[in-house]
Design a protein that fits this description.
The structure is a homodimer. The longest helix of chain A has 14 residues. In chain A, α1 crosses α10. In chain A, the strands form 3 sheets. In chain A, strands 10, 11, 12, 13, 14, 15, 16, 17 and 18 form a 9-stranded antiparallel sheet that branches. Chain A has a 5-stranded parallel sheet with strand order 3-2-1-4-5, sandwiched between helices. With about 350 residues, chain A is of the alpha+beta class. Chain A is built from 12 helices and 18 strands. In chain A, β12 and β13 form a beta hairpin. The interface between A and B is medium-sized, with 35 and 35 residues. Chains A, B: One of its GO terms (biological process) is 'de novo' IMP biosynthetic process.
Chain lengths: ~350, ~350
C-alpha cells in the first residue's frame, strides 16, 4: 500500500520512517528539491496545488494525507472523488483559520480565551473593550511558530501592528497569563476507535516549541481528552489531531488545534508504546490503533536553527537523536532529541545535561 | 555523512531506518531492482563486485559496510585504500569459511563442537572417528539458514551427501544435542569502546530462526560476552558482531559468528535502549555507543515465507510489526514482529497469541 503525503518536511520524514516497518510505501509532494523527506520516498517536485502531481498521487496512492495546514485546500478538494484524503478537509479548513477554529471550539462548549474578528482599523481600536489589555492581534491564516502576530500593550502599539497586518483577515485574542501550556495528541480511525496519549506539557521560546514533557497521570488529562473527543466526533475525524490548551487557575482554555502529527508529540517515538506517527498511519488506513501508554519517563527538546554535535548528543545516556537532514537556518526546526529515563527525577537530570548542549 | 551498504535486503533496510534519525544518508548496492532497501535510499543496481559501482560507493560514502557475508571480498579489498570499510575484511574472511571460523575460535580458547576438514571422500569416511555419530557435513562457504548441510547418521548417508557436496570445500562437525541455542550481540567502535546486549535465546525451525527471546540476567551471559570480547579484540573489530553458541550441560560451545547485525538481535529495536542497527552505525562512525540495556521484556518472531494479515498483527497489544516489503516465497524471511510486555509472564501470553497467527 502506498501513502501520499503533501509536504516533504520532518513530519513527512517521521511518518515515512514509522511506515516502512508496516510494509507501506510512500510518495511525497513538495516543491523543494531538497525537502528532507525526499531521499526516503518517491518525491514529486511540484507546487502543492499542481494538478498533475496531485492527480498522480491520487492515482498511485491508497490514501493521501498532509503534514501541514497550508496545503492547497482547493487542490485537494478536487481530488476527493478520486482518493481517500485523511484527516478530513473540513478539519483542515476549520483549523487553518483562527477565527473559524475558535468559533468551532465555542460551538462545542470548549472554553477559549476571549476573541474577536478584526476586519478594519476600527475593529482593532474597539478590540480591547472585548479583550482587555494587553491583547494579541494575529493573522487568521498562515501563522505558525509565533509568526504573523503582535502583542498590543497600549493604543500606541496599534498603528505598527496595523501597518504590518492590514489587508489580511485578522483576529484579536485576549492575552492569557497562563500557568502552563499543555497539548493532547488524539487519534481516531474511520471505524471510530479513538485513543489519547498522556498530556504533553510544553515550553515555548520566542514563539517556537522548545521543550515538551510527557506527563502521565496529569490531573488535566481527562478534561483535555474530553475536549479533543468532541472535536474528533464533530469533525468525523480520521488520523492524529493535536489540541493545544492553556491552563489558567486549574481551568483549560483551547488555544489551537492541528489536524496532523504535532511537534509536542515527538516524544511518543521513544516514549509511548506506539508513536503518533505510526498511529496516524494506522488510523488513516483504518487499522487497529496501537498502545498510547508511556514507556519510561520522556521529554523532547527541539533543535532550532543549529544542531549540536552528533557525538555530544549520542554521548548522553537515554538521549535519542532525530536530525532532520535540513540545512541550518535561524528559527528553523532542524532536529529534536527525546530523553528517556526510568524515573521523573532521572529524566530531569538527563534533560539538564542535554539542554546544556544548546546554544 | 553518507553510508554505503553492500546488499539491499532487510538488514540494510533496518540500518537505514535507524540511520536517518542520526542525520545520515545512504546508498545501497544490490543487483536486484526490487531489493527491499532500494526505495529508502540511493540504490545502485549492479553486481556486488561491480568495479564501477564499488568505486562510486567509495567516492561518495564516508564508510562502507555490508549486510551479509557473501559479498565480494575481492572487490572490497581493492577499495581499502580509498574507503573506510567496517567491519574489517579479516572478520569477513574468517567468518565466511566455517573451517577458518572454528579454527579462529579454537585459537582463542573458545570451545566449539568437534570439527574436521573434509577435502575428499576418504576424509568423509574417516570423519566419524573424530566426530562420532551422527555428524554434520557442511559446505565451508555460502551456507546459511540450514542450506548446504547434511546430517550423516550412518555410513550409508555419506554417498548422498557426497553426491550433492563433492567438489566444494567441506567441514565435518559433531552433532551436538544442545540444551538451547543462545547468541550474544556485541558492538565495538574503532576507539575500543565495547558493549553487549543481553543474551538472545533462539529457537530454529527447519534450520531458520523462528523465535528469539531477550534473556536479561541470563547465567550464561558473562561467559558468552567474554568469548565475544576475545573475537572483537583479535579482529580489531568495528561494528556489530553476533556470536551463536550452543549450551550443553551448562557449557557454551561456539557455533558460528556473523560480522554484521543479526536476526537474533532484531528485538533490540523495541527491546533495548538503542537498537543493534543504530549501534552498528554509531560504531562504524566511531561515535559513542548507545545503551544496550533492555526495555521491558521482549521476544522476536520471524515471518517466514508468508506474512500474517497486517490488521491481525496490529490488533495485538505490545506487538510491533516489521514487514520487509519483500515478495512472499517459501523459506524467505519476509518480516518479523517484536513482542514487548511489562513482565516475563505477560510476554509469554502475548507471544502465544502472536504465534497463533502463523501458518
Amino acid at each position: 500500500m502506498k501513502i501520499g503525503i503533501i509536504g516533504g518536511g520532518q513530519l513527512a520524514r517521521m511518518l515515512i520512517l514509522a511506515g516502512y516497518p508496516l510494509g507501506l510505501d510512500f510518495a511525497v509532494l513538495d516543491p523543494a528539491p531538497d525537502a528532507c523527506a525526499g531521499p526516503l520516498a518517491e518525491h514529486l517536485v511540484a507546487p502543492y496545488d499542481d494538478p498533475e502531481a496531485l492527480a498522480r498521487l491520487a492515482d498511485t496512492c491508497q490514501v493521501i494525507t498532509y503534514e501541514f495546514e497550508n496545503v492547497s485546500l482547493e487542490g485537494l478538494s478536487r481530488l476527493q472523488d478520486r482518493a481517500r484524503i485523511h484527516p478530513p478537509l473540513t478539519a483542515l479548513a476549520e483549523s487553518r483559520d483562527r477565527l473559524q477554529e475558535k468559533s468551532l471550539f465555542r460551538s462545542l462548549d470548549i472554553p477559549t480565551p476571549p476573541f474577536v474578528a478584526i476586519d478594519s482599523r476600527e475593529d482593532l481600536a474597539e478590540a480591547p473593550k472585548c479583550l482587555g489589555w494587553p491583547f494579541l492581534v494575529k493573522t487568521r491564516r498562515f501563522g505558525y511558530d509565533g509568526k504573523g502576530q503582535f502583542l498590543i500593550r497600549t493604543a500606541a502599539d496599534m498603528d505598527a501592528a496595523w501597518a504590518e497586518l492590514a489587508g489580511r483577515p485578522l483576529i484579536g485574542e485576549g492575552f492569557i497569563p497562563f500557568d502552563r501550556e499543555v497539548s493532547v495528541i488524539a487519534v481516531r480511525r474511520a471505524s471510530g476507535e479513538t485513543a489519547f496519549y498522556p498530556l504533553s506539557e510544553n515550553v515555548h521560546k520566542s514563539g517556537i516549541l522548545h521543550l515538551a514533557r510527557c506527563r502521565p497521570g496529569d490531573a488535566a488529562a481527562a478534561q483535555a481528552q474530553e475536549y479533543a473527543r468532541r472535536l474528533l466526533e464533530r469533525l468525523d475525524y480520521v488520523g492524529v489531531l493535536a489540541l493545544e490548551l492553556f491552563e489558567v487557575n486549574g481551568r483549560l482554555l483551547a488555544n489551537e488545534m492541528a489536524p496532523r502529527v504535532h511537534n509536542s508529540g515527538h516524544w511518543t517515538i521513544e516514549g509511548a508504546e506506539v508513536s503518533q506517527f505510526e498511529n496516524h498511519l494506522r488510523a488513516i488506513l483504518d487499522l487497529p490503533l496501537g498502545g498510547t501508554e508511556p514507556v519510561g519517563h520522556t521529554a523532547m527538546v527541539n533543535f532550532i536553527g543549529v544542531l549540536p554535535a552528533l557525538a555530544d548528543v549520542l554521548a548522553q545516556p537515554g538521549v535519542h537523536c532525530h536530525f532532520y537532514g535540513k540545512a541550518e537556518r535561524p528559527g528553523r526546526k532542524v532536529g529534536h532529541a527525546t530523553v528517556r529515563a526510568a524515573s521523573a527525577k532521572a529524566l530531569e537530570a538527563r534533560l539538564h545535561h542535554l539542554l546544556a548542549l544548546l546554544p
